[in-house]
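Z., the sequence and structure:
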Amino acid sequence: MSLRINDTVPNFTADTDHGEIKFHDFIGDSWAILFSHPKDFTPVCTTEFGAVARLADEWEKRGTKVIGISVDGVEEHKEWKGDIEKVAGTKAGFPIIADEDLEVSKAFDMLPAEAYMPDGRTPNDSATVRAVFIIGPDKKLKLSMTYPMNVGRNFAEVLRALDALQTAAKNTVATPADWQVGQDVVIPTSVSDEDAKSKYGDFETVLPYLRMTKL
């Protein structure tokens, strides 16, 4: 069954290059981002993991833990970190899960349940393991994105989406298209004008069902 928005994410135990983790314990009271890739020592994913490393301060500001996942093992992860840090120009301090048996990939619906990869697996064998999951402190899935192998993920957009999710959760609002921090937000249609005035102050009625306000 597919993992859907607001589903509680699987609580798995796995080895990482930082040691064994239990996923829900790893998340704790933080937000979390799980980002996956098909294999270590692949070109596009090396640039992506480098991008994640360079954003370390931004994740920390937002109380968010990031963790990678690969179908390769812990020793490969440790060796690959050297390449990632060379590309990033900074330390890659986040852990990477060793999902050699594909259990986590299957639990997050990145691969079919019957998926099997023999020794000598190639990135094509695990091509669908190219996903990003943003998870709230309540351990529920808030957002997911899946990319093809030939398109690098835009982690500026992941960061923007995280800001939008955290803003919406904190203030009980929605965010419009292309929203950036500091811009006006959308008042939910379930809130009356009277309650909106009390809760948000002044607002602009663009359409009867579209009301914008500042935070």
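The chain has a mean pLDDT of 93. Residues 121 and 191 are 53 Å apart (CA to CA).

Let me know what you think.
H.
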